[in-house]
Design goal:
This protein has about 110 residues and is mostly helical. About 90% of the residues lie in helices and about 0% in strands.
């Protein structure tokens, strides 16, 4: 159970870091090119949510394969664990997106 929790926290923070870090670095690049940084940051954060999720899971094929094998072999605990890891990564990406929206003064 402790390993599942530590992996969920790791997935959360990886997805959060991809979205928040990517948007902040994109905002810095828009400052250099004299574009509106807040608008660029919010657009990038929205586009990076899916990539934060994918990078946190380490590639989607292994996750889908584990879910498939869990269903086929009757190991529902494996399916539940994988779904929890997907949800933690999604939540991390969404929190990163919401942080960027907050920093940019969005809704």
């Amino acid at each position: 159970m402790l390993k599942l929790f530590s992996t969920a926290v790791l997935n959360f923070l990886i997805a959060f870091g991809v979205v928040a870090g990517g948007a902040l670095c994109g905002g810095l690049s828009s400052l250099i090119t004299q574009q509106p940084p807040l608008h660029t940051m919010t657009e990038l954060a929205g586009k990076l949510k899916i990539w934060g999720l994918v990078s946190a899971l380490g590639g989607t094929f292994t996750v889908i394969e584990a879910i498939e094998m869990g269903f086929l072999d009757g190991h529902l605990a494996t399916v539940v664990k994988q779904v929890l890891l997907i949800l933690s990564a999604f939540f991390g990406a969404h929190v990163g997106y919401m942080l960027i929206l907050y920093l940019a003064g969005g809704d």
